[in-house]
Amino acid sequence: MADAKSIKVIYFDLNGRAEVLRLVLTYAGKEFEDVRLAREKWQEVKPTTPFGQVPVLEIDGKKKAQSIALAAFLAREFKLYGKDNWDALTIDTVAQLAEDLIQSYARSFRESDPVKKEAIVTEVKTEVGPKFLGFFESLLKENGTGFFVGNDITLADIIIYDLATGFLKVAFEAIDNFPLVKKVVDTIGDNERIKKYVSDRKQ
């Protein structure tokens, strides 16, 4: 992929599931086309995607889908997946925990009753979020370097930054009580490439 002539991240005009892909590419210093679909164009574009869904990563005209798999692929390509399988296992663990947390919050999108919807959001804010922050804090403490694996940023750290600054902010309201997690988020946010991307990006 180092010699790829064209990289596109195809998604709707929001952060959502594609943002971790954009962040990995940005952190790696890899140029890409950020294709943001208008909702009214979706039915036209949908048949051209591998599984009728986005995000899609297109590399030199070849399209792949499934956000977790795509993030892992990019991280491996750009040496952001640790030094060995044990590191990769920790990164996969963080990714799976993140997905569990996302699914806990996603219940609110599927709930039509406003009272029940608000109850789900409150639960994520006061119970589920802090529980998962505790999981992440423990993993960081176990490694002892300020990162989830090794001595530098990997996909795991970028995933946590994405959650904490994206649509799962509500689950991270207690982040000040988890200093190691907060430090990871601050460290990623202080990266010059990420800082510029966030400053320029559409919200």
Keywords for this structure?
Glutaredoxin; Glutathione S-transferase Yfyf (Class Pi), Chain A, domain 2; 8 helices; 55% helix
What does this structure look like?
Keywords: Eye lens protein. S-crystallins are structural components of squids and octopi eye lens. Contains relatively little if any GST activity. InterPro entries: Glutathione-S-Trfase_C-like (IPR010987), Glutathione-S-Trfase_C_sf (IPR036282), Glutathione_S-Trfase (IPR040079), Glutathione_S-Trfase_N (IPR004045), GST_C (IPR004046), GST_superfamily (IPR050213), Thioredoxin-like_sf (IPR036249). The structure is a single chain. The chain is an alpha+beta fold and 203 residues long. It folds into 2 domains: 7-78 and 194-200, Glutaredoxin (3-Layer(aba) Sandwich), CATH 3.40.30.10; 85-190, Glutathione S-transferase Yfyf (Class Pi), Chain A, domain 2, CATH 1.20.1050. The protein contains 8 helices and 4 strands; from the N terminus they run βαβαββαααααα. The chain has helices at residues 19-27, 42-45, 67-77, 85-110, 114-143, 155-165, 179-190, 192-200, and strands at 7-12, 33-37, 56-59, 62-65. Strands 2-1-3-4 form a 4-stranded mixed sheet, with helices on one face. It is globular. The protein starts with 6 loop residues before the first strand and ends with a helix. 29% of the residues are buried.
